[in-house]
TrEMBL record:
The keyword Amino-acid biosynthesis does not apply. Residues 28-53 are annotated as: Disordered. PROSITE patterns: LRR. It holds the Pfam family LRR_1. GO terms for cellular component: cytoplasm. Keywords: Leucine-rich repeat, Repeat. The gene is Lrrc43. This is LRC43 protein.
């Protein structure tokens, strides 16, 4: 299976950090670190062109080649801000991103829609990583032992995650955002992993478009997350409960945003006391289905016209329509 490490290596290869105008070469050889010591940094924007040794390019000129959209060395559209920063660092401080040294400077890693299936232990090389975005891949299992302890943001939207047990064995202690929208989480079996015992610093949680069904059970677990301010639950069956939003607003008084909508003072006052009435959480929902078009069924208005214009016996048609959810 394709791993995060393999996708990262492919991404770094695509960035060509060791080739002109990045890296070390004849275009900036005077900036090579002598005897393997600290690199000689000439990244001062005020440096004058005439100070450059003959045959070399100034850092400003090399950076311009990376930023100019018409340059053959510019990154293609869709590349992340982190990719651009890495290439600029490969110009200004080339020895810091040489070989495995690049793993020590990466703070954000974005690997989206690359067919990744495995979050492997190779990620532990990224000792400064704070943000990991792995959306739109094929990840079904995440082992917390393979995640850098420095993580503050973990985004796993649009994957195939169905179980949080392995993720919660020893999760990153400083995590502030956990994105699990558009996965396969099934309630109430996963509710027990959404507590402060696993996520003491969580500020933002996205659980949208899963299969969570137990609103009362979920709220009882989420209430332990004292720092939680942003919660997204839309798209789950429990969001169909008529008193869904009001119950959440009153049960989690520290929430600032629920389902991308700001929770205001008026709304809190409106739903005051609803949390103390769990009997209103009926395990049923009302759904209105509007059928816009049907094929293969005679038009009733045409049949009625035939009946009105005819003296012959009336013919009645009956149809059975089945909806599968």
């Amino acid at each position: 299976p394709c791993s995060v490490s393999a996708a990262l290596q492919e991404q770094l290869k695509h960035l060509t950090l060791q080739d002109f105008p990045c890296g070390l070469g004849s275009w900036n050889k005077s900036r090579r670190s002598p005897h393997g010591g600290q690199p000689r940094l000439w990244a001062d924007p005020a440096r004058q062109e005439e100070d450059m040794p003959l045959g070399e390019e100034s850092p400003e000129a090399l950076i311009e080649l990376l930023k100019d959209p018409h340059s053959p060395w510019a990154l293609p559209p869709g590349c992340s801000h982190q990719d651009q920063l890495l290439r600029e660092m490969a110009v200004l401080e080339p020895e810091l991103v040489r070989g495995s040294s690049v793993f020590q400077v990466l703070r954000s890693l974005r690997i989206v829609d690359k067919g990744v299936e495995e979050v492997d232990a190779g990620l532990l090389q990224l000792q400064q990583l704070e943000e990991l975005i792995l959306s739109a891949n094929h990840i079904s299992r995440i082992t917390s032992a393979n995640l850098p302890r420095t993580l503050k943001v973990l985004e796993l939207c649009c994957n195939a995650v169905a179980d949080l047990q392995d993720l919660c064995v020893q999760p990153p202690p400083e995590l502030q955002h956990l994105g699990l929208g558009y996965n396969r989480l099934y309630g109430p079996s996963q509710d027990k992993y959404l507590t402060a015992a696993f996520w003491p610093n969580l500020v933002s949680l996205d659980l949208s478009f899963n299969n969570l069904t137990d609103l009362l059970g979920l709220v009882s677990q989420l209430s332990s997350l004292e720092k939680l301010r942003i919660l997204v639950l839309k798209g789950n069956p429990l969001a169909l409960i008529p008193t869904y939003r009001g119950f959440l607003v009153d049960s989690l008084p520290k929430l600032s945003i629920l389902d991308d909508i700001h929770v205001g003072f008026d709304e809190r006052h409106q739903f005051l006391g609803l949390a103390s009435q769990p009997e209103l959480m009926r395990s049923e929902a009302r759904v209105v289905v509007s059928v816009g078009d049907m094929k293969g069924v005679p038009d009733p208005s045409t049949l009625q016209q035939l009946v009105d214009d005819s003296d012959f016996p009336v013919i009645t048609y009956s149809y059975c329509v089945t909806y599968e959810f």
